[in-house]
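User: Please fill in residues for this 625-position structure.
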């Protein structure tokens, strides 16, 4: 591999976008978007990406990675007259949509169109967008693989592959799908990998997918970003929620994402915060998509101050104005700390990362210091004196709101004399007592107003474009000279593997990373989805004569129970419990009996939905096809 390059540091003047030699239509889009100077990752990645080189880019979340690969795509790598030519893979639908929208804005004057494909959305709409001439496709691995296997996305013509948040995709268990997708793409292509951390799994993936990539590292030594202040509190296991409330009372964050390690903890903590009067909601993989969208919309509109979420639920969420990230539970792996804290201090803003650390997590805190050179500052839990200061501040806020207008000249003169009076404290105290009345009521009212305060609303996201014919490119001025692509060394063509039909077996994914090697032996066999009617280990549900079995990629390893599957079908597909047949739960997957006439509907409605922190794969069991 080529030597690692780093971003420019210590320059007195940051180069502007004009230093990149962008074409006139792209520069026009940049100006309309209000961008002035490129971020370090955009500056470092543009020239080699534009020259057609494979890249491994390490940069933290919120540093402008989308434009780092989006600019080269719209500024010459993609032909506006061709069909799909670039594929962007992202771990979540929110991140896929974000990439599609931002790159669409960058290429708005070039005639280049984007399309977002992801689970949980109608397949026919995505097919129409692809058929309408989208040159850049951004999507989640599961739905992209669906389109490739159905032929609605032609993999043979894709010449650029971008892996966004590669470490998150592997940690979420997309190794098999990534392998199956790459098997359907041309061997001669450009591959760009962007990731906040480069661990062993990402390294192994890069060796399988890339050839002589150039490395660009902007975060290996400062992954914690200078704009983020890292702090931690030593807490006990019991009463952790009450301790967090004390911290929130004292810190008074403008807005925050509070991370928990389990789904149950998110709901419990959100309920505890609501009971204390805080404006909070929870978000995890068990939340139906409609409710998920409602919670995210509240956050973007400034109607929600505290979002309590799991790692999986928060991945890819584009909420860029969060002032605080709080680790209610210290993450199980250090890479998750990097992704969590990357939600604040984005795009040059400042932010604060606070962690509640128990004695059992001190080893992980030490490892964070050793590995990423992040040294959180130890804080002590707020004292009674600090909480008293908060009450006093609340009263001053009430006074400020009660008297918003300027006093007249006489009253201001009396106030100045009063401040110099020998009995100033006694006189002012009497005035305040007559104004505030009963102390308890005032303090409770002031605290409640502070806890319920809403953050500033975020800018509305760009609407997703409807499918329509691509506009003709504008006549453009002659662009500045660009570096000629390096001639690719001759190499023997590799035989293209046959499509792997069973590659979407999410239940075979190993989050520990042992399956990330992409060896052929790792691919699940066709027998994994074969219905074994001789074994019976699931539930008491009836089995109707007209029932058929669906394969679902949830099993014992996911902690799934028959009742949870029934609730999933009832919530997402409006199926009564009595209509659900026998449920057979295996180690890595389950078989569920459903009415024959509802099969197509159930498969469509559950496609791309999330449960037990994974994207669902639901299809007819092979024995019944």
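Assistant: Residues filled in for all 625 positions:
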């Amino acid at each position: 591999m080529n030597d690692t390059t780093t971003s420019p540091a210590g320059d007195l003047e940051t180069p502007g976008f004009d230093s990149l030699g962008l074409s006139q239509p792209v520069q026009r889009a940049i100006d309309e978007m209000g961008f002035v100077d490129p971020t370090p990752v955009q500056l470092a990645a543009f020239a080699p990406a534009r020259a057609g080189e494979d890249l491994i880019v390490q940069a933290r979340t919120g540093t402008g990675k989308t434009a780092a690969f989006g600019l080269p795509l719209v500024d010459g790598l993609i032909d506006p007259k061709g069909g799909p030519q670039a594929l962007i893979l992202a771990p979540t639908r929110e991140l896929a949509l974000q990439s599609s929208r931002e790159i669409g804005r960058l290429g708005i004057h070039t005639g280049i169109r984007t399309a977002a494909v992801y689970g949980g959305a109608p397949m026919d709409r995505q097919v129409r967008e692809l058929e309408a001439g989208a040159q850049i496709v951004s999507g989640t691995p599961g739905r992209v693989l669906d389109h490739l296997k159905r032929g609605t996305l032609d993999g043979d013509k894709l010449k650029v592959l971008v892996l966004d948040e590669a470490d998150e995709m592997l940690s979420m268990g997309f190794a098999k799908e990534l392998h199956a997708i790459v098997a359907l793409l041309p061997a001669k292509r450009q591959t760009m990998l962007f990731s906040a951390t480069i661990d062993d799994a990402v390294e192994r993936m890069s060796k399988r997918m890339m050839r002589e990539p150039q490395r660009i590292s902007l975060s290996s030594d400062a992954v914690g970003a200078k704009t983020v202040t890292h702090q931690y509190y030593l807490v006990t296991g019991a009463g952790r929620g009450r301790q967090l409330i004390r911290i929130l009372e004292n810190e008074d964050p403008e807005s925050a994402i509070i991370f928990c390690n389990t789904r149950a903890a998110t709901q419990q903590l959100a309920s505890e915060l609501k009971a204390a009067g805080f404006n909070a909601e929870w978000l995890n993989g068990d939340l139906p998509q409609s409710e998920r969208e409602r919670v995210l919309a509240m956050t973007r509109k400034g109607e929600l101050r505290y979002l309590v979420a799991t790692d999986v639920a928060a991945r890819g969420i584009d909420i860029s104005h969060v002032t605080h990230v709080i680790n209610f539970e210290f993450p199980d792996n250090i890479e998750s700390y990097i992704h969590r804290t990357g939600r604040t201090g984005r795009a040059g803003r400042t932010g604060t990362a606070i962690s509640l650390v128990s004695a059992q997590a001190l080893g992980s805190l030490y490892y964070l210091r050793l590995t990423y050179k992040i040294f959180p500052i130890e804080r002590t839990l707020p004292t009674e004196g600090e909480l008293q200061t908060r009450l006093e501040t609340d009263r001053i806020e009430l006074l400020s709101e009660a008297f918003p207008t300027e006093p007249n000249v006489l009253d201001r003169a009396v106030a100045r004399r009063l401040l110099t009076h020998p009995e100033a404290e006694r006189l002012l105290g009497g005035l305040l007592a007559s104004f505030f009345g009963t102390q308890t009521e005032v303090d409770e009212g002031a605290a409640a107003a502070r806890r319920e305060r809403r953050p500033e609303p975020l800018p509305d996201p760009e609407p997703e474009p409807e499918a329509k014919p691509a506009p003709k490119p504008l006549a453009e001025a002659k662009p500045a000279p660009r570096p000629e692509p390096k001639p690719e060394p001759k190499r023997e063509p590799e035989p293209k593997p046959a499509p792997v039909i069973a590659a979407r077996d999410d239940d075979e994914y190993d989050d520990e990373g042992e399956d990330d090697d992409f060896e052929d032996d790792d691919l699940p066999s066709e027998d994994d989805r074969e219905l074994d009617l001789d074994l019976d280990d699931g539930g008491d549900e009836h089995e109707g004569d007209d029932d058929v079995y669906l394969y679902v990629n949830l099993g014992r390893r996911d902690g799934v129970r028959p009742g949870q599957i029934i609730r999933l079908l009832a919530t997402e597909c409006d199926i009564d419990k009595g209509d659900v047949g026998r449920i057979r739960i295996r180690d890595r997957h389950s078989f569920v009996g459903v009415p024959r006439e509802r099969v197509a509907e159930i498969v469509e409605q559950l496609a791309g939905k999330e449960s037990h922190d994974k994207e669902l794969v639901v299809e007819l069991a092979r024995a019944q096809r």
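For context: The longest strand covers residues 228-234.
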